[in-house]
Amino acid sequence: MLQTFTGHGLKLGLGLLSIGRAWGVNHSALPDENEAQALLAKALDLGITILDTAPAYADSEARLGRFLAGLEPCRRQGLTIMTKMGEHWDFKRGSSFVDHSRDALVRSIDNSLSSLGTIDVLQIHKATSDVITDPDVIAAMEYARRCGVTAFGASVSDVEAGRLALESGLYDALQFPLNRSNTSMVPLLPELAASDRTAIVNRPFAMGGLLAGQPFEAAATAAFRYIEEQLPNAVILTGTGKIAHLAQNIEAFRNRSA
What we know:
This protein is about 40% helix and about 20% strand. It has helices at about 35-45, 60-70, 75, 100-115, 130, 135-145, 160-170, 190-195, 215-230, 245-255, and strands at about 10-15, 50, 80-85, 85-90, 95-100, 120-125, 150-155, 175, 200, 235-240. The strands form two sheets. It has an eight-stranded parallel β-barrel with strand order 1-2-3-6-7-8-9-10, surrounded by five helices. The chain has a two-stranded antiparallel ribbon with strand order 4-5.
């Protein structure tokens, strides 16, 4: 398990797609710069120490980088900053695209380091089976190591890719979706637990689908409880661009064992 995630039990992190571009079932409005900075500050005040971003999240990396630059060094050292490479953002077209070529990945690493300063966990975005051990990807990971990155992950969406990532020995963590309406990764969970790699769960609310038309607290708490039953030791990423929603998510997470 990643040293940065030492200790057992479930941990809650903040996915930062919502401060970079609109997404999800309702495509809620993107927060402005001041709102994004306030959200990040509130997250730390509420005990969040794991922050997950990506180049494909448009303005997310840049906004996080500006926030980190304003922190005292001791406070930054207590955070785990995760980003990705492989899916990129075209600001002119306002859309993402996938490119796992070595040159594109190296440029992505350089841009991420320029924005964030340091990267604690670098993940391969859109890590399909043919990407996991691609020579260009491995070469880019070696470049990242020379730049000071020490931990790597693969963001996968199917069991085959996850299994290949575990078997390769290249990755310290796997990020994947898991919730009551998407159980496709459940067959991999025993292998993941046996490997001692870190599990990072995204889309715990199925992009808001599990919360629609239900009392928020009960639905969110049930969603967190389901994941804990499947993965007692994992990181769950909750994503929101609103402080009020963040506080609700954290409260529901804390109440899951009540």
